[in-house]
Each structure stands twice: as C-alpha cells, then as structure tokens.
C-alpha cells in the first residue's frame, strides 16, 4: 500500500496536501525521523483544528467575529482588566458558570460577549449566539408546534450560549416562563453569557412578573461574574469628536446600579 493510500485511509487530508513541502523542508533542515514525524502530525492536527474551529464558528451564528485583542479597554476604564483576563481563561466555562454584561447601548457588551464565545470555540467548545428576541420567538414557535422539550434540549447542548439584548423588549408572562425553563435546564450544566441594558432591579418589568424575575436571577447569578460597563457609546464617540452629535455622555446614575464587577461565587 502506497503512502498516499495510507494517508487517504487514515483520513489525513491536511498532511497529504502538504506532504511534498514538508519532505522538502525536512531535507533542507536535515531533520531526524522523530522531528519529521512531529512536524507531519502537527500539520495534520493544525489543519483539523482549523477546520473544526471554522465549523464551530459557523454553527455559533455570531453576528461578526470580534476578539478581546480588538477591544478598546482604554475607552472603557470602568472594566476590570483582571476579571476579563480571568474570563478569557475559560474557567467559567469548565465550571458551568455564567457571565452577565450590563451597561447602556454601545459600550461594548456584545463585543465582549462575542469575544468570549470565540475563545470558547477556539478551545473546542460548542457555542451558540442568539438575540433575546430570536430566542423567545424560537421557544414560542416550538411550543405552538408541540416540540418545546426537544427545542429546550437543543438549547442546552451548547457549552456557551450567548443571549444578547436583554431588556430592549418586554416579555409576556408565557414568554418569561419559557425563558425560565431554559435557564433552569442550563443551570450548573453549561454557561450562559447575557448582555442587558437594564439593571437587575428592572428585570421584574422585563419579565412582567417579579416572582419569575427573582427565580431567573437566582439561577443565573448563583455562579456568575457580572461586569457593569459605565461609559460612552463606541458608536457615538467619533461623531462626538467631530461635533456631529451633542448628546451628553451617560451619567453614572443612568447606568445599571450593580457593582462594577461581581466576582464569581464559589460552588457550594
């Protein structure tokens, strides 16, 4: 059996595609057998990892690809860099903990949420991004079509679920109940990253029921990190500098009234 046939049967397509160049490089560098084998296997693994990452990012349905390196922390000094670095280590994903990003529109909540989701995808985790409006529509349609349990199970599979734009639209009691069922299923099993422009004390209005809001917060915040971003909108900063807008910078009392950062609570 030829080398090409062996690579085909072993499904080493990435190594097969670059075998000639690897052999040439090995000859020029006078690599021994072990060094060549290491480089050959690294080539195959790298190709598989990249293909898997591209597949996970496609399945995640992210609105765009943003990284933590692209985030302008100098523009948002209220963010604790240490907490973000800890989150980037993905320990919260391994522990099934949550992340809540609070703040007015345009301060970078979605950017941070997407960047953490990209980190999780790079680490091999299954990720899914949804706006809250789309989530609620999906759950309501599933209930109407008598497949709610299956839909809830599918939304439990992602190791990281990003829910964006909590608070822009109020929910009916039925919608809030469905949202609670999802949060309850994911509780201590998988991580949820949630962004909201509303403080926790306003969530009773969002869900239309203080009891349901309290139950959701109890499970969402039991093991979680909360970042309260206080600052100017990224989307308005350049226009403001150019004198195109004169909207005042949000005041401190206009932002959610939780602490700037709440560290993860210990299990137990």
UniProtKB/TrEMBL annotation:
GO term, biological process aspect, one: DNA replication
SMART domains: AAA
Keyword Cytoplasm appears in the UniProt entry: no
Highest rank taxon of the organism: Bacteria
AAA+ ATPase domain sequence ranges: 95-227
Pfam families listed in its UniProt record: IstB_IS21
Region entry Disordered, spans: 239-268
Keyword vocabulary terms for this entry: ATP-binding, Nucleotide-binding
InterPro entries found in the cross-reference section: AAA+_ATPase, DNAC/IstB-like, IstB, IstB_ATP-bd, P-loop_NTPase
An example molecular function term from Gene Ontology annotations: ATP binding
Family label: Belongs to the IS21/IS1162 putative ATP-binding protein family.
NCBIfam families with a match to the protein in the record: IS21_help_AAA
Record-given protein name: DNA replication protein DnaC
Biological source species: Halomonas korlensis
């Amino acid at each position: 059996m030829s080398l090409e046939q062996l690579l085909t049967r072993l499904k080493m397509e990435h190594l097969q595609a670059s075998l000639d160049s690897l052999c040439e490089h090995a000859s020029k560098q006078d690599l021994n057998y072990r060094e060549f084998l290491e480089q050959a296997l690294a080539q195959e693994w790298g190709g598989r990892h990249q293909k898997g990452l591209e597949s996970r990012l496609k399945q995640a349905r992210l609105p765009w690809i943003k990284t933590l390196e692209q985030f302008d922390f100098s523009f948002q000094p209220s963010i604790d860099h240490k907490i973000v670095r800890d989150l980037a280590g993905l320990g919260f994903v391994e522990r099934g903990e949550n992340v809540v990003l609070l703040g007015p529109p345009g301060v970078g909540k979605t950017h941070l949420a997407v960047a953490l989701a990209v980190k999780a995808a790079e680490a091999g985790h299954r990720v899914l991004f949804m706006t809250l409006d789309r989530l609620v529509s999906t759950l309501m349609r599933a209930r109407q079509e008598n497949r709610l349990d299956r839909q809830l199970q599918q939304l439990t599979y992602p190791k990281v679920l990003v829910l964006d734009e909590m608070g822009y639209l109020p929910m009916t009691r039925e919608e809030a109940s469905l949202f609670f069922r999802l949060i309850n299923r994911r509780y201590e099993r998988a991580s949820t990253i949630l962004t909201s422009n509303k403080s926790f004390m306003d969530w009773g209005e969002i869900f239309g029921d203080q009891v349901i809001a309290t139950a959701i917060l109890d499970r969402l915040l039991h093991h979680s990190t909360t970042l309260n971003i206080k600052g100017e909108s990224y989307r308005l900063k350049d226009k403001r500098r150019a004198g195109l807008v004169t909207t005042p910078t949000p005041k401190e009392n206009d932002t959610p009234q939780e602490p700037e950062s709440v560290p993860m609570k210990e299990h137990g």
